TrEMBL record:
Keywords: Plasmid. The lineage of its organism: Bacteria, Pseudomonadati, Pseudomonadota, Gammaproteobacteria, Vibrionales. Pfam families: DUF285. This is BspA family leucine-rich repeat surface protein. PROSITE patterns: PROKAR_LIPOPROTEIN (PS51257).
Amino acid sequence: MKKTIIAVLCSSIFLYGCGGSDSPNTQVPSVGVSQSEIARKQLDSLIRAANLNQPKTLKAIEDFDTSAITDMSYLFDRESVVGDISLPNLDLSKWNTSNVTSMKGMFRGSVALEMPWLSSWDMKKVTNTAEMFLGALSFNMNLTELEFPSLVDDSAMFSGTAMTAANLPNTPNKKLYAAILMGGAEADAVISQYDTSKMTSFGYLFRNFTGNPDLSGWNTVNVTNMSNMFNSATAFNQDISSWNTGKVVTTKGMFNGATAFNQDLSVWNTVNVTDMSNMFNSATAFNQDISSWNTGKVVTTKGMFNGATAFNQDLSVWNTANVREMQNMFDGATAFNQDLSGWDVSSVLNFDGFADNSPMLDNFPKLPKPWWPKLELARYIRLGDVAKIEAFDVSGFTSLAGLFEGSKLNPNVSGWDVSNVTDMTAMFKNAPNFNQDISGWNTASVTDMGYMFNEAYAFNQDISGWNTASVTDMGYMFNKAAAFNQDISGWNTANVTEMSFMFNGAAAFNQDISGWNTANVTEMREMFRAAYAFNQDISGWDTTNVTDMNYMFGDATAFNKDLSSWNTANVTNMNNMFNGATAFNKDISGWDTTNVTDMSFMFYGATAFNQDISGWDTTNVTDMNYMFTGAAAFNKDLSSWNTANVTDMDAMFSGAAAFNQDISAWNTASVTNMRFMFYDATAFNKDISGWDTTNVTDMSFMFYGATAFNQDISGWDTTNVTDMNYMFYGATAFNKDLSDWNVANVVSYDYFADGATAWSNAYKPTFN
């Protein structure tokens, strides 16, 4: 049964993809960085791929060699990675954590139920577990056997989880956590007298706590995080006015739902606080003077007084110059009616619902003055008053950013005077029904059209006459605008620098944009990804300044145009560039790839591609994993490629059924991963006896189904290999003598040579 399941899993990789990263923040490790950093960045990329619904990478995560990694901080943090990964579906028992020193925030906010493998991890060198499980609401497992002999900081390690006192490991602050979890008068006494001088985080510490301990004597001098500290601590109402908050950077949700709290905080030092979002959300009793707080560094106050029904204090002198988010700040603050007309809101990007359900909503003179007209218009949009929207005068507006975002309305705004508007970012983002004639708009002043029609599924109107001469950002402009297919050939794009994701998922778009001036564009990643219909000539585009072409034509199944003259000298990232571009087969032999560091998944599933790329400079490439996976037609000379810096060749030629070229001279000294490298590469049978495999740790599935391969690799150094599972499974031609291989460190060799029918047992390595 085991054979069948794993074989099906591995075969499915080549049917559905094993993907590179879709994350806009993915960075490729540069030559010269530490092995720990390289490994960490590769692991981050895998985790992001898993979060982007590519579950076949789960096995790759489980089998990842973590022995070099020293820092696992925030690895599965729900706020740091894209989406969320369900930890119960992962078996990380193979992970080597012997060199890890930091696990800070590692599982913060994760959907963590049970992780039985955690108890087997080596924690000897771990010094920091602060916030390790912070906010992982359902986490509760017995960790009493887990030892942390070097641990220094375990601040808020289990705060906001379901942990019980009986399951806590022996850590520096176990006594405090146990008291909080147990509750009661005795616990309150322990908590009140506890020495907190070394703690750096109070995040979620008293979340849902039912006690009311005296914390006035606590030493908070080193604390930086007070987020959600008293979240839903409905009984707490003690004097904490003397706390030293000079190092605190976040008070996010600190008193959220702390319905009894109403203490003086007027002298708190908030000079370093950047996040006050939801701080007093639903703190229904709080009504204290905080007018003197230093808010100069605060960037978000969203939901800060949302539902704070008693609060009505003067905040007129607050410095809001750097605040970017104020949405729902006073939503439901039914008592609040203070004058905020003088606030500097020049940096605010989002103030949706700022004063909803409060006396301020209909009292525009007390709201920040620049917002008066826009708040009125936004109110009409919320109420669905189409007539008032269509008649509204927007001639004085400079920004319409996010105006109809998420709205299901379809108002006729053709008569709007937008001549003074500079920002149309996300204006119709996720407005699924909008499809009105806006061809007459004067867009001469607009500089930002990023996300403008993102997920505006119905929009398909003539905007050919728009003046885009001042626009610098068109990133995500038609992302997933599935119906759009209009002539925009005449647009002036001379000042545009950002075009990433511009037509990503714009399934119908197939218009001539050959004349666009792209001389200043630096970002083209995922520009035509999943633009299934697009197949236009863009051979004349100036790509001199482009640095990122990641996934540019990924899944662009119709595209097959000449790109031979493109200048790629500054491109560093080509991962997934033609992934799934099943029609593409054009000459790109002259491309300058000198600065490219990542070619992983570049031709993955590019089933038609078979062009000469022998002259490419691959000196700086570190990652070639899955590069030609499923590229069934490819069979060109790569013998002169410089692979000295490549560390990952995982599945490089998997399913490359035609490939059979001489790669004997490749320098593989830096490669650590050759897993799946020739999986189902049914034609390959070339001499690779001279390869340096000294650093390779994983050869699992390497020649699985490679039915033609029969070369002498007896001289390979396999000293460091730990995994040879399925290595020659189904390699029916192979019969070379590998009996002298050093397999002392191999711990996994399941089905090593099953189905290798020509190979005698005497020639096989002897496993311990």
